Amino acid sequence: METSAATPTRPPHPTTASPSPSPSSLRLWRSAAQRNLRNQWSHLRTAKDKWLAAAADGRSHASALVNAHLSRRDMPATDLGVLKDMPGIRDKASSKLALREGQYRGMLLSAYKEMVLQLSYLVKASRSMRCFSKATPNRSITQFSDCQDDLNDSGDGGGAPVYRWFSILEFESLAQELVEMFVSELKLKRLLVLELLLLTFKQGLEHQTSLDWGDELYDGEQNKLQSIGLQSGETCPLPENWCADISGGQRPVNPPSHEVLEVYITTWLANVNINISRVDEIFGLAEEDMQIKLS
Questions:
Q1: Where are the domains of the chain?
Q2: Tens digits of per-residue pLDDT, 274-292?
Q3: Percent of the chain with pLDDT over 70
Q4: Please, what is the angle between helix 168-202 and helix 89-126, to 10°?
Q5: CB burial class (10 A; 0-12, 13-18, 19+) of residue 200?
Q6: Are 185 and 80 in contact (CB under 8 A)?
Q7: Most exposed: 9, 177, 179, 287, by fewest CB within 10 Å?
């Protein structure tokens, strides 16, 4: 592959690179930076795979929740055939379905929680690619760290290539592109989780009677979202161009129709904000430059 085709575009306004180090210092820095980049991109790969696995689990649990909900909601009008005259059969069936809804609801929340966790790992790895000189008592020994001790050290080796072509800035640019896709998709998934949880609230299965966009979906969610950069104050910002009434108080009183719920499940399955081909390309570019196979 030609270098011009492989090299990603630098950020429009990148952080000012540190002065070019001496050849001996650059050699030491590059060795440490290569180890760190291998580790961080391996973390990115692992977190990406686990996020997609959690999303697949979430889709399965969401489908099961919707099916149980629709079966219970339609129970009064369902033709039970020869069972229709059994005393209390509809109430018993509805109770069983309500129990299943509660189970699937918990499983859906667990899958969403795992997605938030893996996204936090993605973000952390994308922000940990720089390699800084570490102040040591013995100045004859050069050590490196992911923490910045010297404000004049940008941790990027003066913009030099780390392996073959890409600088730290270019690796960061690729990682940021990757993270932005998953951040956008998590916002969409969070909205779908919120709407699916509201099914049980509207039907009176939970003591809680309402749930708004700014509410925590599980204990500790706000802190985790804040660490990712999705949280501002007490509300998680909605994606741009989404209806303002999502934020609570103006939702339709009636539960969503079969067709709407089907759209929810299809949208979840599609991962509409994640370009899988581009994700694979990003990891392919990183692997080719580092000349390793990430695992």
A1: 17-290
A2: 999 999 999 999 999 888 8
A3: 66
A4: 160
A5: buried
A6: no
A7: 9
- Per-residue pLDDT tens for 32-67? 889 999 999 999 999 999 999 999 999 999 999 998
Beta-carbon contacts of 244 under 8 Å, excluding residues fewer than 6 positions away, are 250
pLDDT tens for 65-81 read 998 888 787 665 565 65
pTM: 0.80
> For residues 140, 145, 150 and 153, what is the CA-based torsion angle, rounded to 10 degrees?
100
Whether the CB-CB separation of 288 and 1 falls below 8 Å is answered with yes
Helices (H), 162-241: 168-202, 221-228
Asked whether 12 and 114 are in contact (CB, 8 A), the reply is no
Alpha-carbon gap, residue 254 to 265, rounded angstroms: 19
